[in-house]
Amino acid sequence: MDRRLFLAGLASIAVPSAVAAAEVVRLRDLYNKDLSFSDLATTMEGELITVSGFMAPPLKAESRFFVLTTRPMAVCPFCESEAEWPNDILAVYTKRLLKVVPFNVPLLARGKLELGAVKDEETGFVSRVRIVDATYERG
Amino acid sequence: MHQFARTATAVAAATLALASTAALAQDIVQKDSAWYTDAQARIQEMMARQPNTNKAKNVILFIADGNGVGTNYATRLFEGQKMGKLGEEHVLSYESFPNLALVKTYNINAQTPDSAPTGGAMNTGVKQVFNTINLNENAIHEDCASENGNKLTTFSEMVSEAGKAVGIVSTARITHATPAAVYAKTANRNWEGEAPDGCVDIATQLIDAMKAGTVDLAMGGGARYFAPEDAGTMDGGKGSRPDGRDLIKEAQDAGFQYAYDTGSAERLNLDGTTPILALFEGSHMKYEHDRSDEDEPSLADMTKMAIEQLSKNEDGYYLEVEAGRIDHASHDGNLYRTVTDGVAFAEAVALADELTDDGDTLIIVTADHEHAIAFNGYCGRGSPITGLCYDVAKGQVKHSDEPLTGSDGKPYTVAGFLNGAGAVLTEQADGAYFGTRPVVTEEGATDPDYLQQALIPMSSETHSGEDVAVYAKGPWAHLFDGTIEQNYIFHVMNYAVSAE
Ligand SMILES: [Zn+2]
């Protein structure tokens, strides 16, 4: 019992302070099962939110854009002849130039929530949900 | 099930008392234990067993992709625990089938197999080359010219020639390795929607097979490989065929029925007169955890439709049903989706068993290969299979609530993977790999999106060469016994449909 309390204490100390202050939204909470936007997403549109997830390997170097995924983007060379995007993803437009984080390191990303399809000019990537002016850190 | 076991026990105990009085002169104090009497009942059940030597009118081959003995163990416990049991005592639908063997899954040139040559071995009776489908040992992976003169005869060609209907159901793309093994011959399993000059892509091979009458029903995902590049498909996706062919339209022009979602599937005419092509997703169908009934059918739904359609053929049928995404979830290192798709697989088998007659239908349940999954100890009974390993309780039966910890003082989960995205070693800023095990809680580990901890960092967890099991019932199911080569499965199917 003591040990678990101790570990719980450690975990909360370890979480970066600025981001920890806000409530963390999970990516899957922004979508319903049929991939329409959840009530949570529509009520928070335009607001600053913090989302947990993983950074998919960026499409382009020197960019201010990455895709946040629910689970690490594993790519099976035998299963897939081309890259497959999961359905429940979030486009993140960052305030500063991207510093790549490995695909399987948990992240917390914070930015203003935008809904509706937009095509990224540089990559051609079409997103339905975005956070903009975003910052991120290891979660 | 348990009710049945108890009744059987009473009968068995009576029989046993008569049969073995001499051997049991000594009083056995544990003889009234349920463990003891259940096992005695099993003896009677085994002695009462008669081989079924009927000719098989129908053969259903169920393949859970990536569901080796270890993965299947995880699904058994998960389904049991979902039903409120401790889990270890649970029996999956097909685990009560009378016959079983262990299967060696390696390929001609690979210790660790992939789904293409393994599916091919089951459909042709010979082992094949890594990443190729239904070519002989002279095939060279990715070498189109090596297809010439090296193509094998498939079970679907043999039985359709004999008048049987042929069906394929998969939750993966219908052009993916396991379903393709029913109808395709290719030097590269990835030639799903395009192939080099002189070779034919897998989607085209399916439509050709349907036109030739060697396939009568195909249900799964993968619409993109049947539609021209950038053309919209009815499932809401986009085509990706560079040759611009619209194979869906070609299928419809040939008079075949087409379905693309639950609603259109419900409108299919299942009277057996018109072949069916159903492509419910652009790529793979959804994981069971992410699927909604309104959008696309379950594996059990598709199996039911297939049996209803194919059973109208008076000479019987061959149906291959694949749960294709058990494998994908394990590649992701996400055990939750592995076992939830595993449960959906067990439900599909149970339904097929219910809809068919053991007297004329051979049902085979197996996997093509295992994954790099592994299990920790020493967990107490009922430790949640996707969650933490809890200490054994003194005074029985369920585990104590104290999670066991490693020498690092942190709890660990029951299951883990040897490699994959869940690796505890992560890439650091300087490119080196380094790490310590993250703290894992029960809530975190049982979350549907959790990745079990793994050792070797890789973008995708790998298959392993470990054995899989084969379970069977119906005509000639008793030919499964011992440890077999995977290609032997074809020979049992072939013997069963040919028996006089
Ligand atoms: Zn695989």
From TrEMBL, chain A:
Keywords: Signal. Residues 1-21 form the signal peptide. This is Uncharacterized protein. It comes from Bauldia litoralis. The lineage of its organism: Bacteria, Pseudomonadati, Pseudomonadota, Alphaproteobacteria, Hyphomicrobiales.
UniProtKB/TrEMBL annotation, chain B:
Residues 1-25 form the signal peptide. The keyword Phosphoprotein applies. Mg(2+) binds at D65, H176, T178, E322. The active site is at S115. Keywords: Magnesium, Metal-binding, Phosphoprotein, Signal, Zinc. InterPro entries: Alkaline_phosphatase (IPR001952), Alkaline_phosphatase_core_sf (IPR017850). GO terms for molecular function: alkaline phosphatase activity; metal ion binding. Its cofactor is Mg(2+); Zn(2+). Binds 1 Mg(2+) ion. Binds 2 Zn(2+) ions. The keyword Acyltransferase does not apply. Zn(2+) binds at D65, D327, H331, D368, H369, H463. Belongs to the alkaline phosphatase family. This is Alkaline phosphatase.
